């Protein structure tokens, strides 16, 4: 898990149960995306919660979850989307 500390003292990360984040202070959690099965495509789809854009589709839910974690990691393409207010 990677934690980013901002200049104003806030911490940003992709939530995980790896560590108890509540020990760092008050939590403010929002969903980065929705992962749902698309019956028409017959695939699991990852859709951005902010833009409603379909970002990825996968044959398995596990693959979709792995893609989401990579995409929204600090080195991934979706990190900047999460950091916008």
Radius of gyration: 14 Å
Give the DSSP E fraction (strand runs of 2 or more residues): 15-25%
Q: In whole angstroms, how far apart are the ends?
A: 22 Å
Count of DSSP helices? 2
On the 0-100 scale, what is the average pLDDT?
90
Elements, N to C (H/E): EEEEEHH
Q: What share of residues is helical?
A: 10-25%
| Contiguous runs where pLDDT drops below 50 for at least 5 residues | none
Total number of beta strands? 5
The major pleated sheet works out as: 3 strands, antiparallel
Quickly count the domains: 1
What strand order characterises the main sheet? Answer: 3-4-5
What does this protein look like?
The chain has helices at about 60-70, 80-85; strands spanning about 5, 10, 35-40, 45-50, 55-60. It is of the alpha+beta class and about 80 residues long. The protein has one domain (about 5-85). The strands form two sheets. A three-stranded antiparallel beta sheet has the order 3-4-5, covered by helices on one side. Strands 1-2 form a two-stranded antiparallel sheet. It is elongated. The mean pLDDT is about 90.
Which SSEs are present, and which pair or pack?
Layout lengths: L3 E2 L5 E2 L20 E6 L4 E6 L5 E5 L2 H11 L7 H5 L2
Antiparallel strand pairs: 1-2, 3-4, 4-5
Task: For the structure shown, list the relevant keywords.
alpha+beta, two-stranded antiparallel sheet, 85 residues
Give a quick precis of the structure.
With 85 residues, the chain is of the alpha+beta class. It has 2 helices and 5 strands.
């Amino acid at each position: 898990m990677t934690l980013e500390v901002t200049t104003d003292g806030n911490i940003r990360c992709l939530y995980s149960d790896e560590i108890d984040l509540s020990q760092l202070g008050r939590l403010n959690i929002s969903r980065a995306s929705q992962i749902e099965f698309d019956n028409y495509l017959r695939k699991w789809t990852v859709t951005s919660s902010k833009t409603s854009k379909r970002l990825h589709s996968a044959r398995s839910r596990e693959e979709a979850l792995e893609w989401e974690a990579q995409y929204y990691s600090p080195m991934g393409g979706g990190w900047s989307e999460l950091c916008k207010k």
